[in-house]
Each structure stands twice: as C-alpha cells, then as structure tokens.
Fold these 2 entries.
Entry 1:
Amino acid sequence: MRSFITVLLAGLLLIGCRSGQEYPRFTWIPYDQSQELAENAEHPSRRMRFKLIQSRVLDKNELLRVITRQLEGFSEDTYRELLPLIYEQDIRTLQRHVREGRLSYELITKWYLYQIARYESDRERYLNAIVAINPNAVAEAREKDRRRPENPHPLYGMPVLVKDNINTAGMPTTAGAHVLRDNRTDDAFIIRQIRAHGGIILGKTNLSEWANFLFFGGPNGFSAVGGQTLNPYGRRKFDSGGSSSGSGAAIAANYAVVAVGTETSGSILSPSSQHSLVGLKPTVGLLSRSGIVPISSTYDTPGPMTRTVRDAAILLSAMVGRDPEDPATARAPEPPVYWKVLTELQDLKGFRLGAFRPFLENARYQEALEVLRSLGAEIVVFDPPEVDLEGFGEVLAADMKEDLPRYLSRYAAPPYRSLTVADIVAYNRADSALRIPYGQGRFAQMLKVSLTSEELAARKQHLHDEAVRFFEEPMQQYRLDAVLSINNWHARPAALAHYPCLTVPMGLKENGEPIGLTFIARPFEEARLLQMGYVFEQARKGRVPPPAYAPEAEARAESRRPAS
C-alpha cells in the first residue's frame, strides 16, 4: 500500500511540474475607461451609453485569488487538452465523458474556474459576469467524484452559476446593491434542491441591480457591486439584456454548464435571447421563490438559462418542489421528469402555432416559421387584440414596497433585517456617485405609491384579465397550442397572465447579435413548451457560441476533420 501511495504522489508531482506552476496566476489591473465611455456616448441605444464599466466595489483580484487557490496542478496546457471535451458540451455529454473516465467532476469544475479567470482577467475580453466564486467548489467536486451514486440525477457533479439575488450560503447575496454587499445568508429553497440533486454551486452572477427595479432608462446589466455586464457577442456593442445579465453572458462564454436566472417580466427571456441561449420563464408557483430578493411575489419566478433545451429541462427538474414557505408552489401540479419527456415528440405534426403578423418582416422569424412547418406544425398568422396593460410599473412598486422588507426580515443576514425602503433610499443618496450612478427613480416611486389593498387587488385582476385575453382570443379562435414571439417582446402580457415562456436560439442577425424564438403556452404547460422547443432546436441548431471566448475550440475541431 505504501509503495502505491508513493507512486501516486510522484504522479501528482509530475503533473504539477509539467504544468509549469502549481497555482496558475491571474491578475486584474484596473485601467482608465474614459476612452471606452466616450466611444459609447454616441451609441444608437441610450441603454448602451455607459457611465461606468468597471466595478468600484468588487475586488476582482480577490475573486481571482479564490479561483487560483482551487487550481492546484491545473495549467494552460491542461485547459487546452480538456477544451474539446468541455467547451460547448451539454450535461449528457459531460456525464458520458465522466463515465468513460475521460473527465472527472473535479477536472470539469477546475476547467470552468480557469475559463472564468482566463477571460475575466483579460482587459479586452472581460464581461463582468461573475461577482463571487464558491471557495469550496473544487473540494465539493472532489467529493462528488469520491461518492458517485449508482443512478445519479443528471445534474450530479455539474457546476451551476446562480444570479446574485438568490440566497446562497458561503457567498454574499447582494442583488447588486452596495447596501447588501455583505449579506450572507442560508441557501434559498431552490439552491437546497440543486445541491440535493448533486449540483455544485460554482459562483454568483452579476445582474441589473435589484433585478432592474432601481432606475429608469439606464443600462441593462449594471450593478454597483458588479459593474457593467458586457455581451460577449459584442462588448459595448450589443445590449446584455436584463436583469439576469451575468447569467446570460456567463453561460454564453462557457463559464459553467448551466445558470439560474430570475424573471418578473423579461429578465430571463431578454438575456437568454441576447446570448444565444435557451431560457425558460416558468409559471409562477412551479419553482419556489423563498430566499430570493423580490420585486413582486405576484409575478417573480426563477428559471434555467442554458445552452440547450435538454439542459434547461434537467436544471428545471432539479429545482422543482413544494416549499411550505412559498404558498404559490402548492398550486403547481405534480411535474413530469422534464428531460425524459423531451423525446416523446419526433416532430410537430398536429400542432397549431400562432405567429404574430407584425413579426413576419423579421427574416429570422420567417426562417423559424419555415422550420416549424417542415416539422409538421400548422402556422396560423394572426393580429393580436388591443389590450390595456397600463399601470404595471405602479403594481410592481406597490408589491416590492411590501415584499422587499418581508424578504429582509425573514431571509437576510441580521444586520439587514430591519432595513426599510426609505432606509435604502437614504443610504444610496449619501454617496450617489458610488451607489446609484444612474439614480434610483424606481425606488423613489416605491416611496410614493399609495394604493390601498383593494385598489391593488383590483388593478392586478384587471391586468391579469387583459393579458389572458391577449393570448386567449387568438388561441381559442384558432385552436392554438402556443404562440410564437421573439426574444422578450411579449414578456409583459405573459407575466401578467402567468403564462410560461421558452426562448430558443434562432441564430444571429446580420450584425452578429443573437435572436431567439419564444414559445408561449398556458400555465403549467412547461413540458409541452420544452418538447416543442427541443424539436425546433434539433432542426434549427440556432445556438452560435461567441467566437472570441474559446476560438481554440473551433481551430482544434477544424484540425481534426478528415481532408475532403
């Protein structure tokens, strides 16, 4: 036994010597961003006219140190050798590599950590997508290798990134806000579910601060804590979408296998479609919201953001569950095993799908409709009904005014439990340049909103009825199974009606910006959405990775192709 251990240790030392160094070193050097800000000052989109890019709060070198402490024996050579096995690979492929002995969960985790450090330390390619790293990620992966169960959930051993408004033990949960920068909590219910199914929480992702409910008109993807999230398909050129911006940029750039986002109205759909990802906004109540910094208990929901429909189904299945602390979950029917129902459909024969007539001029939408027709679906073109959805912002303000203090009192760290909205507004004003460079108009609106409980309930009912009518009039008239939108363009009526949405990549626009086809169905029809999305995805193959975030993968794949 002693001789075996000696040989094993000698082998590990040899690996370390071959790597050139035991701990890879990455350093972030802050730089003068005035030229970049000046260039963006004339951007056609007002949302892209940034005031700040680099965070003034986050110590990126400390984040890099948390990574490098976990990379013993891992080198650039190892990264490149593993790249074809991990880059752009889905969960099923990664698990097969593990079973065949070509990978371990430890190597997978280290590869993603290295990928994060490699690009987030690069001034030309950083995305500000990550705000915290789990200091025990590799140790947890090593334990997963040691204790592999016989029939694990597909998520077992897979690194997962989590939006930074979801409570995650071991890392702060800030919602991007300076005031919560040290808010250390227990796990939210969905994080406990992910861990129970074997998932490894790799880190936390940047977001639009307070889930995009802080200021009016500023950029998506900005938070005081994390700085400005950038889109890997065009840094400072394309919008990152919001509010799950960091989750979108991170998964697009292969910083993890999958990520969790949250949505009130468009916050999963928007960044997913902007990053050539699959994003599922579930029906409210399918997934628990307890332990998640809220906007509105009426409309909020977490959901998966992934590179494939199958991975979205796997992550969704790992998060579902009845939570006594979130009464909405009691309304959810017993879910199927989502990834197992995907292949029940081979085509879309018999499906009737509604297409919005105003979108027919969009070339990618037209191409997607042709793909769906080729799969057997009947496409019905319709003109949407006129509906009144005014007042949604005031409803959100009224909900957050109640729901945010409730979250703080029940789930935040002790120093934050008595905070009020007025306290947060005053705190931000004390150093507005650092804490609220784009203002806090929405928080100020919260202080002013004065709807009675009866008025609020009546307004919610009116908005719900109008949103349901928006979808149901054409769905009933034409007997539609789902309607087809683009990106997050119908996120508001879907949120108000509690209709789930699934966005799937359609490809890139002519300028290189991603675009997604969004399927919208009735409440708790996630399985049907995933089935339709999977069949479309397999035929369209619209996912395009950002070329600047592992071009070696394409070069290596090209070199391995046989000569024609």
Entry 2:
Amino acid sequence: MPTLLPTFVVVFMVALAVSMAIIPVMIRLAPHIGMIDKPDPRKVHVVPIPRAGGIGIVLGALLPMAIWLPLTDTLLAFYVGSLVLLAFGVWDDIAELGHYVKFIGQFIAAILVVYFGGVVVESFPFMGLEPLSPMIGKPFTVIALVGMINAINHSDGLDGLAGGESLMSLAGMLYLATQASGTEATVLAVAVMGGVFGFLRFNSHPARVFMGDGGSQFLGFSLGVLAVLLTQQVNTALSPALPLLLLGLPIADILMVFWKRARAGGSWFKATKNHVHHRLLELGFHHYESVTIIYTVQALMVLAAVAMPYVADAALVAIYLALCLLVFVFLERAERRSWRVHAAVGVAGGVMRNVQYLCETPLTRNAPAVFVTLAVSIFMLIGAFGIQRVPADMTLVAAVLAVALLVRLVLGYRVWFLMLRLLVFTAVALVVYLVNTYPQSWYAALDTTGYVFFAALALALAIGIRLAERDSFRVTPLDYLVVLIVVALAMLPEKDLAATGMLGMALQAIVLFYGAELAMRKMRNRWNLFTGATLFSLGVIAVRGLWI
C-alpha cells in the first residue's frame, strides 16, 4: 500500500487543479448558456448565481481516475453513469426539468453500476452471514443508489453544505478503504475529494457558484457506489450497517422531509423548506452557523463509523438513530417554543464593526496578498533547485507545461483553451510532488523551517482571502471543514498516511493552490512575479531533468 500513496497524492492534486481551473471558466459561461439559479421564496440566496460548478467536480474527479486506474466493468459503468447524471443534471440546470425526468437519468446510472458493474448489496444488517438473493439485492441497490443521489441533491441548500458533508463522508470511506488496501475504491474517493475541494473554494459563503444538479447527483452517486464497494467487496468484514453512519445526516434529513410532506398531505417531491438547514435558519442561526452545526453532526457520525467499523449492526444503528434523534428533537422543541438565537445585539456587534473598519485600510487589505505572492513564488523557485533528480516522464511534463505557459502568457486570451489556472496549478502540484519525493539533502534538512513557512503562509492566506472577500475575520464553514479534516488526518496511526508523507504533500498542495489563486487574482498583469517564478521553475526542472 505505501508504494501507491504517491499516486493517490497526484490523483488528489490533479483532481483539485482541474476542478479549480474549470469552475472559473464555467462561472463566466453560465449566463450565456442559461445555467443560472434565480432566487425564489424557497431559496436562501437573493441574487442570481451560476450553477455550473458540478462540471468542474465531475471532470476533476473522472480525469485522474481514467488516467491512473485500469479500466474494469465497474469503472466503465461508473464513468458512463456519472456522465449520464452530469448530462441530465446540466439539462436540468438549464431547463428546470421535472422530478420524473430526472429520475430517468438516476435510474439509468444506478442500473448501469448494479447490473453491468457488479455493485450489489449482498449482505444486509441483522441477517448475519446469510446473503441476499440477487433478485432482491440488485433492485434494492438500485433504489438505495437513487435514494442517495436525491439525499445529496436535496441537501444542497446552503453554500458549502452538500460539498462539505460529502467531503467528510468521502474522507471516512477513504480511510477505511486504505486500511483494506482497496486501490480502486481509494482512488475513487481521493479523486472525488479533490474535485469537491476545488469546488468549495468558490462555494464557501457567499458562494460565487453552485454545484447544481450536475454536481449534487454525481456526489450522491459516488457516495452510494463507494459505500457499497467498501462494505460489500473491499472489506466484507465491515458491518453492513456502517453506510448509515458514513453517509450520515442527508439520509435522515430526506426521510424526515418526506414524512413531513406526506403527513401534510402534499406531494413527496414538491419542494418545501423542511430540511434541517432551512429549520436552523428559521430559528435565527446565521448561514455559516447553520452549515457549521450540520458539519459537526456529520463529522460525529463519520468519526463514529471510522472508530467502530466492526461493531455489531444493532449498536451502529442505535448510534445513528440517537444522533439523528438529538438533532430532530432539538429542532422540534425549539420550533414549538418559538425560540430564536441572536435575539439581541450587544457589545460584540460594535467590536466587530471596529475590527471591520481596521480591515478596510489599504495597508491591511494588501499586505497579506503581497506576502502570499512572495511566499508562493519563493517556494516555486527554491523547489526547482531543491529536487535531487527529475524522472524522465516528469521532465517531459515540466517541458510541456513550460512551453504551454509561455504561449499562454505571450498570447493571452487569444489561446483561451490553455487555461492559466490549470497550467499554474499543475505546475505547483508537480513541484510539490518532486520536492517531497526526490529532495536534495539540504532541502530535506529544512523540516522545521518548512513548517514555519507553511504555517505563516496559511495564516496570511486565510487573512488575505477574508479581506479580499470583505468578510472581516469571521471563521467560515470552509475553514472549519479544513480544520476538521486536518485534525482527523493528524490523528491517524503513524503507520498510515501521516508517516508516508501523503498528509504533508496534500496539505502543502492545498495551501499553495489557494496561494496561487490569491496571487493571480491580485496581479492585474498576466506577467507578474508569480507567473514569472512559475515559468522559470518549470524551465529549471526541465533542463535539470535532461542534464542530471
């Protein structure tokens, strides 16, 4: 397993880079092709928002999978099913399809992976070792997958919500898959995580783009397929009840919504504001507070699954029901008592206004971005010389990237297809991988300095992004999500991801990708310190690869 970890890191970074490169292009194209989510009384946002982010998620995930995984019947069915869902999702994002038309695409995707890909539920909670008959197992799996697709689709109601919930579920399944050496499931989880992480950069509140049905249906499909693969094929010793905790709150949420709609005598599929996130907003919680509360519940469920993968079915179901009951009892009691949070504004409001005023000064607003630009540029330059050797395939990649970036910088938007972000993110990923895999002795000795460097860069980056978005110093759900994932990864046993360098490379890539994004946004001219340093670094790597 350890020998495959560099591949997983590269898969994650490529998925992240592709997603972050495609989404800004789709944001610009969305108004021209009708992929705009307009406000209405049922929705939270009050201005039209592009809903084209799902294209970046899907392509970001599928591209590295197709490159690094050998084609199997399961993967072929997954690819085709994902593209079917993307097609129907994009169609719906443009033309507002009815529920029954969307069901056609969902059932096509589910039937493909079940009947042609072999993704089938064969063991069921409380049935012991007695396998389900295929006559029951296959139709059940199809219905379960369609249910999960709709669970994530319906949870996509607040900025960052569906993506963050999915990311936590994927992280839990990734860990369990690595424990069982399930390469196919691991790469699938890593690739989808990279695509989602790239999307969340543009979807944190206030969102610049929504994932739309094209993204939410793909995420529900991926989570459902992974849950079945993990418990039914990769490690059959896992409890078949484990997917309840791994998939978490979206399942309980959609079931509760359906129950409320049915009790009210309405249609199951008529949109209402009965979801957990809607109810939290009605209680007076701010947008980011509602998302953070749901993240916390989802994190508890996923952590319980990771901590107790072999516990008896009854215990896992009891834990899941207890956590769900805690959420819904709180909501019911608060609603009946007309309880509202933030009923009064005190001294804190004045303090935050003063902090925001200080943040608006030119020096305060520009200093973090300047520091980030310098830091990322320095990393690229030092990294180019900190590599002991460059493999032949990486030499070719560096040379191609250098030529493409040079053409893009010289000709500008006349060669729009050579997207600047994609080239830059790929270059950053290349340097991170090479300098961590083949470091010079002097570079390897900079461990302590490296920790200080990335800590300072991350701090400046967090402040710079907040100021750039005129969002004061408020902690956002994306910040909270990153902290959750980092803490969870850091707690892994030493023999796992942390010891192999995967954690370090992944964190470096995330920080540098965000740094590159901020640097490019702040630099008005395409020829600037950062793009120049990136181009020079690629040239150095290509030349050193040929000579060394």
